[in-house]
Amino acid sequence: MSTLQTEQHGFKAHSDGDWENRAPIQTRSDRFKSTNLADFPEVTGREVNWKFTPVAQLKDLLSGDLQGGVLPSEIGEAEGVTVTTIPMDSELVGRAGIPEDQAAANAWGQAQVAQHILLTSPERQTVTVRRTALTATATAAHTVIETAPQAEGLVIIENTGSANLTENLEIVVGAGSNLTVVSIQEWDADAHHLASHNVTVGRDANLQHIVVSLGGKVVRINPSVHLDEQGANGECYGAYFADAGQHLEHQVYMDHNAPRTRSRVAYKGALQGEGAHAVWIGDVLIRRVAAGTDSYEENRNLTLTEGTRTDSIPNLEIETGDIEGAGHASTTGRFDEEHIFYLQSRGISEDEARKLVVRGFLIDVIQRIGNEQIENRLQQAIEAELEQSVLA
């Protein structure tokens, strides 16, 4: 019997089909994008960007019918700030990026309209967007936040109450402007919230993007920041506290697409209770054109009890050797006993020492918001979490 092999090993198509189109994505920027839901295959949970997400709980947001229109919210007034409703086919929509996943494409196709928030004042203005009137109805939303050149602003999005929401948030940071956008998730315990935040940062402009996730059954916030002009600076910070049965997920993409750009990414989370699950994926891409880049990303997780799960995956792609620096770090663990011992040596009880460590761990991010009232309220929310924890 002849065993001579006449064909190259691996030359035939695999049994799973579509062999010619299944080449792995070589870089983060190659991920497929479309505003059309039909262009995306059905989500199975095996995809690289969905494999940690409880997709079975999210079928209506991924591919079901959604309620569109103007999202019920209260938007504060400020000098040099205009809020308008624009159609989805407006030239103002799509400048910061288009969907990379099915949930975002479903929201794009059914949002019907977008809210456009434009900040033009050179003096720092604060705009608060309060969302308190959503329901369990599957809902789509689209928001565009934009700063004119040289403008200064702080936009705070407060999410509370019930929700079953999938949305796209676009952020357009004009040349020389400084913008901080804060997204706070304090949803009710049964809420589902999927959000794609696409950002483009102009020449010599600065963006600070802060996510605080405390409430909700399933929360998935994915910021994609594109440093598209020379001298652009992007900073992404996050704080989260996952309780039993709660899934909090953040996928951050920092795209250096111009010379002498700078980025910092730092997310910190605490977890307690059976089934508490936190996911953080950090992608940094330094393109060939991004000479002089300075970049660093990190994720730190503090597990307070048994039965929690953390998935923390930093990724760094560098296409040029002409950079100032780039690095990443990820840690997950229990309390540092040296810190606890030090506090106890100062007369603080062990339980209070552990709570102090958690406070300091998370408040380091919250203090970056730059609004004392919001910072104090979030610190109180963390205190409430700690009072209900096993540390109390």
TrEMBL record:
<dbReference type="InterPro" id="IPR055346">
    <property type="entry name" value="Fe-S_cluster_assembly_SufBD"/>
</dbReference>
<dbReference type="InterPro" id="IPR000825">
    <property type="entry name" value="SUF_FeS_clus_asmbl_SufBD_core"/>
</dbReference>
<dbReference type="InterPro" id="IPR037284">
    <property type="entry name" value="SUF_FeS_clus_asmbl_SufBD_sf"/>
</dbReference>
<dbReference type="GO" id="GO:0016226">
    <property type="term" value="P:iron-sulfur cluster assembly"/>
</dbReference>
<comment type="similarity">
    <text>Belongs to the iron-sulfur cluster assembly SufBD family.</text>
</comment>
<protein>
    <submittedName>
        <fullName>Fe-S cluster assembly protein SufD</fullName>
    </submittedName>
</protein>
<feature type="domain" description="SUF system FeS cluster assembly SufBD core">
    <location>
        <begin position="136"/>
        <end position="361"/>
    </location>
</feature>
<feature type="region of interest" description="Disordered">
    <location>
        <begin position="1"/>
        <end position="21"/>
    </location>
</feature>
<dbReference type="InterPro" id="IPR011542">
    <property type="entry name" value="SUF_FeS_clus_asmbl_SufD"/>
</dbReference>
<dbReference type="Pfam" id="PF01458">
    <property type="entry name" value="SUFBD_core"/>
</dbReference>
<feature type="compositionally biased region" description="Basic and acidic residues">
    <location>
        <begin position="9"/>
        <end position="21"/>
    </location>
</feature>
